[in-house]
């Protein structure tokens, strides 16, 4: 039996319907929240029912230094000028050697916001960009 691998990732590669958007060094917002409705049962003072009603998914924020792959994001967004089409995205957590250690498939993805770099000749710092995606949940990876 092999030991489980450590979940230490150094980058996250992102593709949208097989179109590679490149690698990102930060990924925030992968998760979900079950909205719970509470109902008190009449005659049973010691019981409050916790009933799940819906699942909410936060937006996913991906950040990286500006690279040649930055053009891929602006091209994807520019292609939506005629209409927004929801697509499937895959985020893969990768090791330094490029081995995928975990992946998440997101359903019905649309871009919410792209923030480009703050450019200033007065401050020498890494130019970064952030892509924010909305989605309707995770797809079964089986």
From TrEMBL:
Name of protein: Phage tail protein
Protein's organism: Lentzea aerocolonigenes (Lechevalieria aerocolonigenes)
Taxonomic superkingdom: Bacteria
Spans through the membrane: none
Molecular function as annotated in GO: structural molecule activity
A Pfam family reported for this protein in Swiss-Prot or TrEMBL: Phage_T4_gp19
């Amino acid at each position: 039996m092999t030991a489980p691998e450590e979940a230490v990732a150094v980058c996250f590669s992102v593709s949208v319907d097989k179109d590679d958007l490149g690698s990102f060094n930060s990924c925030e917002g992968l998760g979900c929240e079950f909205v719970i409705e509470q109902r008190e049962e009449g005659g049973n003072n010691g019981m409050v029912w916790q009933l799940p009603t819906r699942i909410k998914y936060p937006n996913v924020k991906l950040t990286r230094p500006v690279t040649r792959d930055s053009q891929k994001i602006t091209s994807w967004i520019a292609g939506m000028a005629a209409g927004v089409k929801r697509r499937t995205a895959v985020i893969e957590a990768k090791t330094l050697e490029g081995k995928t250690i975990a992946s998440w498939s997101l359903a019905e993805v649309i871009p919410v916001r792209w923030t480009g770099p703050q450019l200033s000749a007065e401050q020498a710092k890494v130019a970064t960009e952030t892509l924010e995606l909305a989605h309707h949940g995770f797809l079964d990876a089986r």
